[in-house]
Design brief:
heterodimer; A: alpha/beta; Alpha-Beta Plaits; 2 domains; 4-stranded mixed sheet; 3-stranded mixed sheet; 9 helices; 28% helix; B: mainly alpha; Formate dehydrogenase/DMSO reductase fold; 15 helices; 0% strand; globular; disordered C terminus
Chain lengths: 318, 395
């Protein structure tokens, strides 16, 4: 065994170790908010659970109703699915007497794609079938590139992308922020149909400012809540509730473009408690450290080729 | 490579076990047909809470890890410079080739838009940040590498000595690739879960998961070599090369000790051990997983037990199961689905997984009976005399 062989082995081992060991610093930081990020503010305390937004969503996206009934007349979807992109869910506790109260109270919550600032679905997709608009930040799915591996379904912290298991030749479906309506100058269908202003559309910056304004209001006082957009004159006068003092989506998992306010803790509303560091950033830090310029695999391959080229064919002559 | 050292085992192909396993394969093929016509929703119990189920865990993760025999022997022979293990590599490569071919086929059956599979290879779709992309590419390439590594026995079988010589000149490149690619995707298969964050229990969600998956795949590689060796002894009445397996067991002992040290040091360092009480299923499965690692370690550290063929075989079985349970735990048991979703595989899912394992067994048996994969049964063959009961069918 020559010294030279040992050196090449060292190179190979270092390359191999880099491939499997936990990544050191030089992290891939959270992605930044896009320059013209649009946003949506959902205020659960304003939501009356009328599901007009769900009907609007199905109309706008040309999707069928879901029902377990023999001859269905109502849409009775129980969760977002391959056929339901937006759903109103109910939290209730004990006697469910008072709205927006954790104990013996209830709250609605509207669940659909959060349009993450740093989306996991985009990070995981092997075919780049999930894309984020670099300008307005809308996260869209492109089935023509999708192979149906369902990694996005598995990995999304909000459990948003859904595979249509009822269709043998199905696809992933998720809320696309009504991007097809936005280009026509229309509002997202759920916002347009919302009678109370629970769903509000604007820039992400505007929505964050409005959310913080509401948190600063005195509970019990009156506030003219805007409907649809901030500058829509048709406002909705209501009493300010006791908000949970948190703008959900400002920082969670690197932030989202759909942000939320509620009167009960968000973990009761089917929303995960996430660290500020995006999981996509954690995962990509490992990938990028390991495969930076493919140096580690190439070092490993080169070292191995040197070692094996001297070994192959001689293995029986030991 | 000297050709005199391996020979077809010969014998009947259509034995009773072969026919029974073929039946299982036929059932699996029929059910896969059903899956392609009626879709995943009809064939499986997969749902939007558990989008990955039995096929992903058993037929991709576990099958690929079982296919690591060729990988670890390549490392032992060519990197650690132990040429004497060369008699073991051909059977290991055959096993690995079947395992990886099946893992790739299973991936094809599991993806929902299989007609679109080529999209992953289109340059404008590449996402280098996607662990899935890395894993898919490496597993596909490695399957090709494995088939190429089987060219020498095929050339020998057809008496193409000249081509064999030319081929062997480039073998070093193939062998090197055959070490790099599994190192990449076996660690990548673990890295798949990192991005799921708190959707995976801290028992399995660790920065060390790539390392643990890779090392456990290496351990399974050792185990499958010992396991296959024992089975060919039972099946073909070959002499057991116990001295070789004992030496493998010595290396395996260190890998296993290293695995358990890292596994528990990490759990303690992250203060994650308490997560073992999260659910009863997690408690039980975590204990089973680690007991299956600990028991073989106890056997393997004792020189006398390690030398005992039966205990060595038992250790190999434990370690194959341990790696399987680790993967099952990290992807299913440790997975926190959205509220209200449960998953238990359908009979169809189970029968497909069983059928794919049966393909491996009958494929392996067929190839070693017809092609020069295994060393001859009787030692005297080294003097040039042909054993009366072997190699008769090659003609």
């Amino acid at each position: 065994m020559s010294i030279k062989r040992r050196d090449f082995l060292k190179v190979a081992v270092t390359g191999g170790a880099t491939l499997a060991l936990p990544a050191p610093a030089k992290a891939r930081s959270n992605l930044e908010v896009p320059p013209n990020a649009i946003g949506m503010l959902y205020d659960a305390t304003l939501c009356i659970g009328c599901k007009a937004c769900m009907v609007g969503c199905k109309d706008a996206n040309d999707m069928p109703i879901e029902s377990q009934d023999v001859s269905p007349i109502w849409d009775t979807a129980t969760d977002a699915s391959g056929k339901t992109l937006n759903i109103i869910k109910l939290y209730k506790n004990g006697t469910a007497e008072v709205k927006d109260r954790e104990t013996d109270g209830f709250s609605f919550v509207k669940r659909h794609c959060m349009h993450c600032v740093d989306p996991g679905c985009i990070s995981v997709c092997p075919t780049s079938a999930m894309r984020k608009n670099p300008d307005n930040g809308i996260v869209t799915h492109h089935p023509e590139a999708c192979i149906g591996c369902r990694y996005c379904v598995w990995a999304c912290p909000y459990n948003v992308p859904k595979w249509d298991f009822e269709d043998a030749f199905g696809q992933i479906n998720k809320c696309q922020f009504c991007s097809h309506r936005l280009v026509e100058g229309k509002l997202p269908a759920c916002v347009e149909r919302c009678p109370t202003g629970a769903s509000l559309f604007g820039t992400r910056e505007q929505m964050l400012a409005e959310a913080k304004r509401r948190l600063a209001l005195e509970p019990g006082s009156a506030y003219a809540y805007p409907r649809r957009t901030l500058d829509d004159p048709n406002r909705h006068e209501a009493t300010v509730p006791h908000y949970i003092d948190q703008v959900y989506g400002e920082t969670q998992g690197g932030g989202t473009q759909v942000i939320m306010l509620a009167g009960v803790p968000f973990e009761n509303l089917d929303l995960p408690i996430l660290p500020e560091r995006s999981y996509a950033g954690v995962s990509e830090t490992i990938q990028q450290t390991v495969y930076k310029g493919m140096l580690a695999p190439i070092a490993l391959l080169g070292g191995l080729m040197f070692v094996t080229s001297r070994r192959v064919g001689k293995e029986d002559e030991e | 490579m000297k050709i005199s050292k391996t020979t077809p085992m010969g014998g009947n192909i259509l034995t009773r076990p072969f026919l029974f396993l073929s039946l299982l394969v036929l059932i699996a093929v029929a059910l896969l047909g059903f899956r392609f016509i009626y879709g995943l929703g009809e064939a499986t119990n997969l749902n939007n809470g558990y989008p990955w189920g039995l096929w992903v865990v058993v037929d991709i993760h576990i099958t690929a890890a079982i296919g690591c025999g060729g990988y670890i022997l390549a490392v032992v022979i060519y990197v650690l410079n132990k040429g004497e293990f060369h008699t073991l590599i051909r059977p290991a490569l055959v096993g690995s080739t079947f395992a990886y071919t099946l893992a790739n086929l299973a991936a094809f059956a599991d993806i929902g838009r299989w007609w679109n599979f080529y999209q992953i290879a289109l340059p404008w779709n590449i996402n280098l940040n996607s662990v899935m992309f890395e894993v898919a590419m490496c597993m596909g390439l490695y399957m090709i590498v494995l088939w190429v590594e089987l060219v020498p026995p095929a050339l020998e079988h057809f008496g193409q000595q000249k081509r064999l010589k030319t081929f062997n000149r480039f073998l070093f490149l193939i062998i090197s690739l055959g070490i790099v690619l599994p190192t990449m995707h076996q660690s990548g298969l673990g890295a798949l879960i990192v991005v799921a964050g708190n959707k995976i229990s801290p028992l399995w969600q660790t920065p060390w998961i790539s390392f643990l998956f890779l090392l456990s795949a290496i351990i399974m590689g050792f185990a499958i070599v010992i396991f296959e060796g024992a089975l060919t002894v039972l099946g073909f009445g070959r002499r057991l090369e116990l001295h070789l397996y004992r030496r493998l067991a010595k290396v395996l002992r260190w890998a296993l000790a290293g695995y358990l040290v890292v596994r528990f040091a990490d759990l303690i360092y992250r203060d994650a051990l308490m997560a073992v009480t999260e659910t009863p299923a997690r408690t039980i499965m975590f204990l089973i997983e680690n007991a299956l690692y600990a028991l073989p370690l106890i056997i393997l550290v004792h020189p006398r037990w390690r030398g005992n063929a039966r205990l060595l075989f038992l250790s190999a079985i434990c370690l194959l199961l341990a790696g399987a349970v680790l993967r099952f735990n990290a992807l299913i048991v440790g997975f926190n689905p959205p509220a209200g979703y449960i998953y238990f595989p359908t009979a169809m899912e189970l029968l497909v997984s069983i059928g794919l394992l049966a393909v491996e067994v009958i494929g392996f048996t067929y190839i070693v009976k017809r092609y020069p994969i295994l060393p001859p049964r009787i030692k005297t063959v080294q003097n040039g005399s042909v054993p009366s009961n072997a190699g008769a069918v090659t003609g």
